Every structure is written in structure tokens, then in C-alpha cells.
Amino acid sequence: MLDAETIVRRFLDTKMQVHPDVVKYLAEKDDPGLIDRIISSVPDDTVVVGVRHIPGITPDRDGSRFLTDPTCEVVRGGAGSSGSISSINDYIHYFRDRYNRLGTLIRNRCSPIPIEGLHKDGRYRQEKCSVLGIVMDIRITANGHRIALLEDPTGNISVLFHKDRPGFSEAETILPDEVIAAKGTLSNDGRIFFADQLFRPDIPLSHGPYHSETPGTAVLISDIHVGSDTFLDEAWKKFSDWLDDSDASYLLIAGDLVDGIGVYPGQENELTIRNIYEQYDVFAEMMRDLPSRLKIIISPGNHDVVRNAEPQPAIPAEFSEKFPDNCILVENPALVNLQGVRVQMYHGRSIDDMISMIPGASYENSAPMMVGMLQRRHMASIYGKRTPIAAGREDNLIIDPIPEVLHTGHVHIMGIAEYRGILCVNSGTWQSQTSFQKQMNIHPTPAKAIVLDLQTLVPQVFDFN
Ligand code: D5M
Ligand code: FE
Ligand code: ZN
């Protein structure tokens, strides 16, 4: 079995460093011959061996870009796609769907055996094998190891990640309710599984993002909070004027359109508009002031009028009837296709849950959490904390198909990251610091818009402060 340390040493022996993604890939493949083939085929002046040096891995663009509308299509999360919850059985279907679909993305990489099999007979006690399941519980032992209780449809098993094993840092980010697999060995008494490797659904190394074949520009924003006394009216006017003169074709708004009412205690003292209908009417006016050639894609957030449980339905007609015709109302989350470039929109409530569980993550640095969503192929793994989930029969929070862009908001602090060719954008806010944020020591970066060239996928930040 090839572990990370052995792999890194093999490359260092030939005076080369190796990218962590390559180490992970080689450990998964467990084929020492592959290391030899890489070493013998890389150019002489190679300093760091990267994914491009692995034979057989070439960027692989999928061909499913046949649009019904050639420019703008809602792929998932169109208005009306998430239903209501009718019975407890939906929850069972929900987690089964999560396990099945995310498990499929891992299974062929490690051939897991049903957990029941580990308990039943003794033959797995000597052999390396893998298990796949949902994390029911994660805890830190007195010695600093991690123990995850993994459950599959046949049973559950405690899986121990030893703190001195290579790759332990990945185990430090295990979240409740995410789907993972572990490769390792069963203890002699069959009660605990010692993991050597952790597998997540992840983005394939061969993923190659699609670029639009024709020119096009999308503008990404979120968290406008109309009706709040901290909404930045002047900055919005500047933005609106700038859009008039720009050549942008799409405006994407990832939730918190208005400040809402009754969202937090004492909110009424911080509202300039205390009526929810009026808040949306003012928002509608702002949308009508924007150029009509723009396609405006509008998704709700936790301050909006719809239910808080995700997926959140699109803003209903009762509140949106004054929106102009160029607005497309979608759910939260929603996947939209702009000239073949897929943007996964998600407001980002789950960031509040992930923030304390992912080392290095903070409101100022949301990148590890956006990347974390992509590695887990799920936008809100943790069930039952701050992010309410409406567990329908299908898990609509799974990230599939893979987008070119992950667009989030909620944290009110702009952030941009890249992961395996996918652009991650947190689009900030149009509201200055609120008294709550002051208490929480959150310093927003308001009035910025991210402008995305759909041909190059290069983002540019414009400041309207
Ligand atoms: O979120 C605005 C900001 O406040 C964002 O940085 C998240 C943070 N926030 C929101 N709710 C909470 C709770 N309950 N605890 C800690 N931090 C929070 P917005 O959705 O616009 O209110
Ligand atoms: Fe917000
Ligand atoms: Zn929010």
C-alpha cells in the first residue's frame, strides 16, 4: 500500500516536489509502477510534478452543453422544482438519495464492502478493505485522533483516523452528515476500523471547465438588503449607472434581496421600510431601472420572504409581480447555464455551520468553505444545525453536474478562489456593517460586483463605494 510519505519521498529522491493532488491520486491508485512511469516521462527541468504530468489525465470537457435556450437556461432549481415535505418517509428518502448519489462518485475508486460484512465474518480482519457511508458522528479522542461513526444501509462502524498518519489534515475537516469512504484495516476484535485513506466525492482531476464560444459578461452580486438602514443607496445608484453603460448580459443575485421583517430581534429599529411588500416593491423598482437587455437571475436568501428551509422556493408572485419581465426567479440553490457556462448559485447559509469545523476558515476567508462544498459535492452537508434543510425525496443540495462557477453570498465579505478549474466567488453585500455584525466582529466589504468574462472565466472586481 502506497502512503503519502512514501510517494513524496520517491519524488524527492529524484529531486522533484510533487503536488498534493498527485500524491492523493497515486495513493488511491496504489500502483508503484505509475510513479516510475511519471518520473521517466516528465521533462528534465521539472521542479514540481503536477496533475498534467500524470499519463492519461487530460482535461475532459463534457459534451452536455446543448441548450434549449442558446443563452440562458435554468438547469436545476427553477421555480416550483422543490415541493413541500409530506411525511417522515421523505427524510429517509432524502438521506438515501444523498448516500446513493454521492456514494456513486466514490465507489469505483475504492470498492467499498457493506458495513454489515465487516461485523459478520472474520475474514476482513487481516485484509485491506474500504467502507463507505454517511458520517453520523465525528469526535476527537483524548489523544487527538478523529473517530467518525460511518453508517451505510446495512450497519455502522467507528472509523479511526490516526493523527500521526499522512493525510490526517483531511480527516480534521470531516463534517457530520457528509458522505465519505475510508480505506484501511479492521481491528482484531472487529469493533473499529483503522483508516489509512479518506475519500470524498470531489471534483475529478480531469475536470476541464467549459468556456463560452461567444463573447458574454455576467455580473455576480448578493445580499442587497433593501429596507435596511444600512443599505447603500448611493453605491447602488453608481452600480446601476455603470450597468447602463456596460456590455453585461446577465446579472446574478444570490439571495438576501431585501432585509425582510422579523429576521432577528430588534430588527424593526434598523429598518427604513417596515413593510415586506414595500421592500420588494422598492427592489422591483431598482430592477426596472436596470437595462432591459440584462437577464436578471434572482435567488432567495435567509432574509427573504420564502421559507428558510433549503431548497428555498423562488420568490412567489405575491411579492414579485412588479419585477420586470427580464427577471428570472429561481430557487436557492439553483444551477444556471449562461452560454454553456454553468453557475451554481447558493446563498451560503451553511457557511455559518462549516466555519467552526474547517481549520483556516473564517468570514474573512470563505474560500476553504466554498472549496469544501466542491470536495463534498454538497452545499450544506451538516443537517440539524443553523441551516434548516427541507428533506424532500431528492437531495437538491448535491453539486451535480459540476459547474464552472460556484456563486455564494451570505458572509458579506467578498472572496474569490479556484479549485480544480472551478471558480468560487463570494459576492459580498450592498449593506454596511450592522449592529449585529459589529457585535460579531464581522467587517463587511460592501458595494463590490464581480464581473465574469464567459469566454475566459476570469473574474474582475468592480468597487462602487
Ligand atoms: O448574514 C450577515 C452576516 O452575519 C454573515 O457574515 C453571516 C453572519 N450571521 C448571520 N446569522 C448569524 C448567526 N446566527 N450567527 C453568527 N453569524 C451570523 P445575513 O444572512 O445577511 O444576516
Ligand atoms: Fe445577507
Ligand atoms: Zn444571508
Provide key terms for this protein.
eleven-stranded mixed sheet; binds 2'-deoxyadenosine-5'-monophosphate; binds fe (iii) ion; 24% strand; alpha/beta; 465 residues; binds zinc ion
Overview of this structure, please?
There is one protein chain. This protein has helices at residues 4-13, 20-29, 32-41, 88-110, 115-120, 168-171, 233-245, 276-288, 317-320, 351-354, 367-376, 435-439, and strands at residues 17-18, 48-49, 72-78, 129-140, 146-152, 155-161, 179-186, 192-199, 217-221, 250-254, 295-299, 327-338, 341-346, 405-408, 415-419, 422-426, 448-453, 459-463. With 465 residues, it is of the alpha/beta class. The strands form 3 sheets. Strands 3, 9, 10, 11, 12, 13, 14, 15, 16, 17 and 18 form an 11-stranded mixed β-sheet that branches. A 5-stranded mixed β-barrel has the order 4-5-6-8-7. It has a two-stranded parallel sheet with strand order 1-2. α8 (276-288) links the parallel β10 and β11. The longest helix is centred in the N-terminal third of the chain and has 23 residues, at 88-110. It is globular. Bound molecules: 2'-deoxyadenosine-5'-monophosphate (D5M), fe (iii) ion (FE) and zinc ion. Residues 223, 256, 301, 303, 410, 412 line the site of fe (iii) ion (FE).
